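User: Can you recover a sequence for this backbone? Please restate the input before giving your answer.

Assistant: Of course. Working from this structure:
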């Protein structure tokens, strides 16, 4: 009888640990949904500067959304609707009203020789300068991040910057 109780207690503890890990990995959000629309653009004048790339190679846009506790909201990030017109992207998603979010947008070249790696789950950006050569248009890379409380549907412009 005693072994049975210990076994049941152990299984209960494992079930609690497993359920806690699932909550930490993908937080469940509920509440009134509103539409968040961003116009994400490279800085003005980037296409006219002769000493750096024109920005057109940065054709891949990564969207990463985090909650106030810095948990990566994978489902929300991956479900964002994205469209591109030149050096500007329009990004729309449904978010929960009255919550604080951090929105991260990264535009990079798909053929950048692996000089940049962004891991949304951890929010870490790694730059390997040994893979970066001067005057390489394939190294186009821009980013912007913004954190605020969402109170209603909105449309907001965001201007990206080069980290290099």
């Amino acid at each position: 009888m005693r072994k049975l109780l210990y076994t049941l207690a152990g299984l209960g503890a494992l079930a609690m640990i497993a359920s806690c890990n699932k909550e930490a990995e993908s937080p469940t959000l509920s509440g009134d949904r509103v539409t968040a629309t961003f116009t994400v653009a490279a800085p003005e004048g980037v296409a006219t500067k002769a000493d750096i790339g024109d920005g057109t190679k940065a054709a891949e846009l990564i969207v990463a959304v985090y909650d106030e506790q810095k948990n990566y909201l994978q489902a929300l990030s991956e479900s964002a609707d994205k469209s591109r017109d030149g050096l500007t992207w329009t990004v729309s998603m449904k978010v929960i009203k009255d919550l604080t979010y951090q929105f991260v947008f990264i535009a990079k070249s798909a053929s950048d020789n692996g000089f940049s790696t962004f891991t949304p789950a951890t929010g870490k950006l790694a730059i390997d300068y040994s893979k970066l050569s001067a005057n390489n248009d394939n190294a186009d890379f821009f980013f912007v991040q913004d954190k605020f409380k969402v109170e209603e549907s909105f449309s907001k412009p965001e201007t990206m910057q080069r980290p290099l």
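That completes the design. Strands lie at 33-41, 60-67, 81-85, 88-96, 99-108, 116-119, 124-127, 141-150, 154-159.
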